[in-house]
Amino acid sequence: MTLPDGAPTLDEILINTATTPWREKSLKGVHEKMLWRNEATGASVALIKFDKGASIPEPHLHASNQMMFCLSGHYEYTATGVALKAGSFYCNPKGNVHGPTLAHEETIVIEIYDGPHYPMKPSWYTDEKDAH
Fold this sequence. Notes:
CATH class of one domain: Mainly Beta
Distance between the termini: 33 Å
Number of strands: 7
Helix content: under 10%
Strand content: 35-45%
């Protein structure tokens, strides 16, 4: 198959997520397994695990569109009452202020960004790597 001029190439990827270790982020109770990242655009696909009681403490916005599919658990945007449970799909448009959040139980989501995560590192992360 010939790709159109300018189309990005993408090699096939296969990751056994069951054997991939969680990387703990600098915000207590938040872990990730990065599945794919485009370094040029900041787009990414990751598994994110929130321990029970973990929270994004402040309202915030993203520099691109954020999409999440909840695999398990109960995760709430407390200001609006929007709650993700197993099977829920959440789409948050670029620039929309949302949060804070609370994981009512251990929650695992697939999180997708179509560009960079944040316009700048949020205050709750001490490691710049956690904001990408």
